[in-house]
Amino acid sequence: MATTSVSDSRARRFPIPTWVIVVVVLLLLALVLLLANWDAVFNAGDSVLRYIFEPGSRVGTSQVVQCYGPDGGGCPVVHSILYSLIFFLIIVTGFAYTTLLERRFIAFFQQRVGPNRAGPLGLLQPLADAIKLIFKEDITPSEADRPIYLLAPILKTVPALILLAVVPFGPDLLIPWFDGVWYQVPLGLADPNVGILWLLAVTSIGTYGVVLAGWASNNKYAMLGGLRASAQMLSYELSLGLTMAIPIMIVGSMSVGDIVRSQTYIYQWYIFQNPLAAGILFIALLAELNRSPFDLPEAEQELTQGFMTEYSGMKFASFMMAEYLGMVGVSVVISSLYLGGYQDGFGLVDSLPILGPLVLLGKAILLLIFMIWIRATLPRIRYDRLMALGWKVLLPLAFVAVGWTAIALVIGDTFGSPIVYGVVAGIIFVLVIGGGYWLLRRSGQDLQPVPLEDDPIITGERRGLGWVVLQVVGGLLSAPFTIYSATLKWLDGLAAAANKPEQAEPANTETTTIVTTDSSGE
């Protein structure tokens, strides 16, 4: 009797809902119908998949209008306007939620909760931050150079917005319209044959905003931050350009679209052909963004926020927006150059173009999380170590990466076989890894602590091959300026001699001597 009561109580405690029984019965009926009409279901599924993955079977070629080129009519203009508006809306929204992504992930790494008050799960936190910054007091220093002070945030923000203008987000889409015509629309604003040059130029322009912000603020901390940003840009720009040249060498084109289309399958991604260059590119772009551990231009402990010290309100928000927009742009650029861009690695996107933006977005989010992980893990490095890393480590390794790809390409083209290219690239990869391991082991064994009184960084002692090379290069660079200055002085001397007035010659006058005698005859 007791057993029966226990089972009844369990049944009452865990009753089976009626809707669960109904769903199970319907699924069983659907399975029976599917098995009974397997041929019809298979043919219908095959037709649907062909319609989705074979865009050419949907519409004839005569009904398709390409939305670019001279035959597009007004479509290119409409596409440029609509694409720019949609892209601006998506990229600004992405910037706002990148801040939330960073705060939540850093809280996760540090075992904190993170923002969770504004909206469900804290999803309205970016909106709350925007409202706060809009109504925050805007202060301008009285001694600042006002026009340049106001222009600097724009110079930092606009390049971050236009960076991705040359990056395709997917293959061309076929879109039907009300006039009965299908339009082939590119998922990108432009694809010039100098897209890599555009990326290099735009990433460099943003540094001008930082330097001018530090100079125009009339603040010594801000000025130091601007100088640090300019020196940092010069140090890492060389490595950045060399690693961007490697996809150009492989593809033979400077178009970002051509580079992405050449990485259809995962084994064709350039990160597997030259991982050293991909790593250097990522580090150099982190330094261009002034992200941790390269955030020396805005070091709070040393420079009280650096070049942004005198900015507040929406001008301060513009600098923050530029940083996070740069993070999104850098993630997309790295994905396009070395991770296949919008290609999923299995050829699926070529058949279903609408997946292209989603694939690229997923890769960008993974790279953003990696950047946030780096910030939560690594401390800020010392400034001289930062410069030494750029000049003494990354730049030589970038030359090694370029030589790696160049040798593999030359040998592969000589034998006319991609297999030979892959084998040579793999052999060089093993040599680079082995040589790096040997150098690190050797340097670790030979490394001895240097007393402060003998440290050349502290004492400023002029010694070593680096100092000699620096003096030679400096002398060669100064020679044209010295010759120019000497030539100017010589020309000034000639002009002064030519314009000197002639002195009048003295007249030949006879000198008359008057002799007077007195009465005594003397």
**β-strand number:** 3
Major sheet: 3 strands, mixed
Proportion of residues in β-strands: under 5%
What does the overall shape look like?
Answer: globular
Oligomer: single chain
- Gyration radius, in Å: 35 Å
Span between termini: 178 Å
Describe the 3D structure.
By secondary structure, the chain is mainly α. The chain has a domain at about 70-115 and about 125-410. Helix content is about 65%, strand content about 0%. The chain has a three-stranded mixed β-sheet, with no helix packed on it. It is globular and about 110 Å long. The model is unreliable at about 510-520 (pLDDT under 50).
Summarize the structure.
By secondary structure, the chain is mostly helical.
How would the blueprint of this fold be written?
Blueprint: H1 2-13, H2 18-36, H3 38-53, E1 64-66, H4 75-109, H5 125-134, H6 146-162, E2 173-176, E3 182-185, H7 195-216, H8 220-251, H9 256-261, H10 270-273, H11 275-289, H12 300-303, H13 313-338, H14 348-351, H15 355-377, H16 383-415, H17 418-446, H18 456-459, H19 465-498
Helix pairs in contact: 4-13, 4-15, 6-7, 6-13, 7-8, 8-11, 8-16, 11-13, 11-16, 13-15, 16-17
